[in-house]
Amino acid sequence: MKLNHTPSTLAAAAVALLSAVTPSAARAEKMTGTQRACVQRVLTTPDASADAVRACVAAKAGSDAPDKAKKTLALDSPEALHLFTVLEARFSEKSPVRPKGVNFAAVKKALEARLDLLFSLNEMERTGGRPDVIAVEGNTFVFADVSRESPEGRRNLNYDEAKKMADAMGVKMMDEAAYRKLQASVPLDQGTWSWLLTDAKTRASGRALVGARDGEGVRVVEGWAGDRNPHGGWRGLLRVPKL
Question: Of 43, 216, 220, 241, which is most buried, counting CB atoms within 10 Å of its CB?
Fold first, then answer.
């Protein structure tokens, strides 16, 4: 089913389309900003279809309230255009961590549908993380900071400051399991170290997990959570649903 591009507004177009493909058009009028951006992108493509719009709406169904508090990055912003250029170049090169079959076009499409996650990924890149896809879990691309040393723009922070920064970026701090798995593919933190997501019991003791390369192996220990060091930072994970 092709879309009629004559409606003068995004809301009118979405309502008209959803009236034909779903029992109720009311849902179209309650779309989040991210859903609307996705629909807008679909409506501007020559092969726009009802299935593509349905995917946009389903991507954030039931998440209207939380979405309002999330930061987003406009697709036509200089930051977004630069990020896509960087990612395309990165994906054109072989990577020891990226699964085979992951292509830039599919990742770009997924990010265009989630402007909040586009913002988060740009923050990872901007602060020196050199994010790349390290796994595909079901219908989700998993990005991680794969910079050889702890991201330069996130160092000299204690654990709570690092966790607060991760939350502000919309990124999950990397846990020990993911860190060890990543280190098995490529040596990281040979001259630096990274805070890792720490359980409440350990954090209550005043400590937090720290990871680093130790010769041919990986060392994860408990350090004082209040410590700051110019050689210590943190790494993150970001999950992006496929479209």
Answer: 43
